[in-house]
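in:
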């Protein structure tokens, strides 16, 4: 969370000028602070919207980081500009109470804008929000039969998504994938408005299919030991993030669900016939391309797909016990693993991913 690349020191001339008078105090010329900031992490908040009998919940884990114009807290130990991290924590709860919570992105924008509007000495606010995946309990999940035995004619249907009646105020934790966002709002020279960057992501979307995945015709040299694989198990854990160029017209929650559905569709294909994957790279690219095709507000998308290997257990030495070939029993191996990633962007656009 909040990982940023190391910034290169400025040129010698700029460094000398900066070190001569920083916040009114002489600083060692051979050193300068090239990046700084502070904040509160892992602020947990649950918001309940009560509209008649139907309640809606949002549970977040929020991080708020601020960057001040001054560095006197570092150089001089002067805390007069510091908005305490405990105050930042309180702000999360107070704004949730005052304005409610609609989506992680909108709440992060609200927090970031508040810190810049409230405190003129704050140069930048970075808000990170992770969403806890609560979904409404469905009718079939509450109609438990007292006479049936699980697996023996039970009428409960825990997987069907058709014609289900959603519960008004009961929820179930469904950690299929994590929805998170990062919002960075940076003050600019007047009269320009603060620059805002909104990045949304999916983390930990684990998928597997048992056929229609191949990997053949790759480099064949003296280092190769892997044979061509014409039909293999394909499993991965998708991490994906994308940046919005337009935040005024986008429905953040719907867009997140669209991206997730696009990834699953390109991975799995039609429920009856599936879809062929000649490589992880190709599946990844098709998913990213379709996101840019379908959601015009997304300017750039980045995706990582590490291989989760399932190797065939060799039964050849055990033909007296299990004669014939084995295509049913596999050994899960997660280390070492291949990692495939790519970033796809609309042309002539700068990205913060």
């Amino acid at each position: 969370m909040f990982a940023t690349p190391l910034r290169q020191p400025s040129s010698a001339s700029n460094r000398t000028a900066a070190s001569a008078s920083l916040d009114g105090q002489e600083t060692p010329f051979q050193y300068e602070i090239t990046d700084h900031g502070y904040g509160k992490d892992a602020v947990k908040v649950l918001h309940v919207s009560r509209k008649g009998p139907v309640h809606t919940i949002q549970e977040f884990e929020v991080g708020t980081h601020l960057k001040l114009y001054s560095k006197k807290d570092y150089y001089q130990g002067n805390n007069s500009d510091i908005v305490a991290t405990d105050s930042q924590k309180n702000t999360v709860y107070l704004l949730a109470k005052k304005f409610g919570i609609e989506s992680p992105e909108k709440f992060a924008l609200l927090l970031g804008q508040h810190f810049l509007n409230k405190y003129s000495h704050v140069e930048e606010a970075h808000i990170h929000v992770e969403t806890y995946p609560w979904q409404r309990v469905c009718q079939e999940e509450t109609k438990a039969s007292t006479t049936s035995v699980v697996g023996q004619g039970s009428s409960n249907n825990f997987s069907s998504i058709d014609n289900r009646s959603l519960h008004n105020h009961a929820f179930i934790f469904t950690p299929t994938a994590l929805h998170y966002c990062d919002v960075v709002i940076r003050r600019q020279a007047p009269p320009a408005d603060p620059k805002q960057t909104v990045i949304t992501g999916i983390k930990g979307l684990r998928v597997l299919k048992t056929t229609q995945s191949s990997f053949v015709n790759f480099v064949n040299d003296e280092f190769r030991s892997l044979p061509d694989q014409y039909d293999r198990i394909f499993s991965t854990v998708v991490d994906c993030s994308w940046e919005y160029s337009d935040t005024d017209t986008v429905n953040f929650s719907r867009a997140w669900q669209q991206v997730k559905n696009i990834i699953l569709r390109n991975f799995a294909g039609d429920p009856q016939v599936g879809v062929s994957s000649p490589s992880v790279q190709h599946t990844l690219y098709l998913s990213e391309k379709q996101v840019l095709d379908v959601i015009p507000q997304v300017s750039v998308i980045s995706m990582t797909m590490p291989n989760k290997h399932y190797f065939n257990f060799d039964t050849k030495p055990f033909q007296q016990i299990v004669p014939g070939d084995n295509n049913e029993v596999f050994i899960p191996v997660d280390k070492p693993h291949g990692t495939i990633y790519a970033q796809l962007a609309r042309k002539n656009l700068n990205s913060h991913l």
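note: Helices lie at 12-20, 72-75, 85-99, 104-118, 139-142, 252-268, 280-294.
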